[in-house]
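Sample 3 of the quickstart, ligand guanosine-5'-diphosphate:
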Amino acid sequence: YTPTVAVVGRPNVGKSTLVNRILGRREAVVEDVPGVTRDRVAYDAAWAGRSFTLLDTGGWDPEAKGMAARITAQAEVGVAAADVVMFVVDSTVGATDTDEAVAKLLRRSGKPVILVANKVDGPSGEADAAALWNLALGEPYAVSALHGRGSGDLLDAVVAAL
Ligand code: GDP
Ligand code: MG
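Result:
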C-alpha cells in the first residue's frame, strides 16, 4: 500500500510549485495564470525512504461563479483520496474567507493536515507564516516552494504523519 498525500488550496498559492519542489523536477504545470492544473494529477514521490503518491489538485477557473464553493469541493475530493493533506496557504496574502472554509472542512475530516505557509522567501516572511496559527490546524510550516526554504522540515512532518 502506497499512501496518498493530497495538496489542496486556492489557485495561485503555489501548490504545483510545491509538488515540483518535492519531486525535485519540473513536472507539475506551474503558471502565472491561476487554475491551470487539471483536476487531479498523481505523481510518485519519496522522502526519507518513504514512498507516497502526491496528488496535485486544481483545475477550476478562478473567475468562474462560485469559485469558493469549487475550491472547497476540490479540497473535499482531495481529502477523500488522501491519507495526509497538505493545505497550502499564500502567507503573503494571509488566510482568506475561502482558506477559512477549507480549514473548517479539513478540521472536520479527521485526516492529518499539514499546514503549509508558502511564499516565505526570506526571514521577514516568518511573521506572516506565524499568523496562520489562527487557522487552528496546528503549526504552519513556513516554506518557499520556489526557492526550497523550509521544504526539508515540511517533508519530515509529512512523512511523520503517514
Ligand atoms: P497553484 O495554482 O496553487 O498550483 O500555484 P502555482 O504553483 O502555479 O504558482 C502560482 C504562482 O506563484 C507562480 O507564479 C509561482 O512561481 C508563484 N510561487 C509559487 N511558490 C512561490 C514561493 O514560494 N515564493 C514566491 N515568491 N512565489 C511562488
Ligand atoms: Mg497548480
